[in-house]
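Subject: for your reference before the review

Hello V.,

The reviewers asked for a structural picture of the protein, and I figured it would be easier to keep everything in one thread rather than splitting it across files. Below is the amino acid sequence we used in the manuscript, unchanged from the supplementary table.
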Amino acid sequence: MQTTLSAEFEGTPEGRAAVDILSHCVHCGFCTATCPTYQLLGDELDGPRGRIYLIKQVLEGAPPTAATQLHLDRCLSCRSCESTCPSGVQYAQLLEIGRDIVEAKVARPRTQQAVRWLLKEGLTSPAFGPALKLGQALRPLLPAVLKDKMPGPAPAAAHDWPTRTHARKMALLLGCVQPAMAPNINSATARVLDAAGIQTLVADSAGCCGAIRSHLGDHAGGLDDMRRNIDAWWPLVQGLTEAGPIEALVMNASGCGVTVKDYGRALAHDPAYADKAARVSAVTKDLSELLPGLLHLLKLRLKARPRTDGGAARAKLAYHPPCTLQHGQQLRGEVEAGLRELGFEVQLPSCDAHLCCGSAGTYSVLQPAMSKQLRDQKLQTLAPLHADTIVSANIGCIQHLQSGTRTPVRHWIEVLDQALA
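And here is what came back from the structure prediction:
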């Protein structure tokens, strides 16, 4: 796709990056076939190809409008189109450029501004935990869009962190909302790694990965979050603490993982952080990437546990692979294969396993109607599996799916942790 930048963007880093990305697009339209919002709305401008044209027009000097902003807002950033694209168009990077430009040029209504400010400041604040507890107490009085976000009580083992030390050490990002909404995911991760002879370390000053602010138009704030995390992790990465160097920086929320793995690109322009960011991205691993190397020890631990079912894990699991894992990180099959190797019965839906569940970070708050449609469609594809538990690999997907079903929805690491216990 040929692009003639307006004088405003010619010679800028954003302009050069956009032209490079646009040059790969051949207008084939394969992306529309796997775009969830295009399937719901049937509007070319609510599919990747249409949004690419909108961004191209803005870069060439066309003034963006509120309609332009709406079409870009409706994108889930699920990146299913990237998995489909035969030309390798980096749509997510182009969307980030387009959204930042439009955000600067199109004033949002004050209500939208207030909601987006509350999300980016509230979800990343230390006050989120106490606020969540208050919300749980007042749940019956809350509007439906917030009531659906209130998790149930945490399991008794949620704060049971292993205390053994091991020669092998890895660092874990606890996340911003996960410690309050689903604390058992982090402790279950530490317990499973402990069972495999790995000690889990945490950098206390690390916080939100940067995705929330970046996705809400606060690009500078997102980069600041990234820099803070790099500073927090750098002594662990370099082996400057008593614990020695870590083998990996582990992500058990795939939404955080896809962001941290992108630190190197996001901060490539920053001479003070470019090299550090690239190093942090290089050592970052999704939890599922560790699983193949842990199977032998975990099998031994599972066999040593007295069971009444002859050692087989009989619970039927339905697996929903998050978009940030299968499209963003291009990781497919590790979770299912690993759990099956450990004796679990795991199935994926026979159709549309590649489609987004509608969570997409703050999307479920900002676009509740479409988000619920996508959630219900996803649950319909999972229902024929008649699973005892639905498992996933991202806190957002887990919470969102749970709001629409009575079937328990959990992180796969929690199911494995329970079997080990």
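For the response letter, the relevant points are probably these. Residues 65 and 173 are 38 Å apart (CA to CA). Residues 219-238 form the longest helix (20 residues).

Happy to draft the paragraph if you're swamped.

O.
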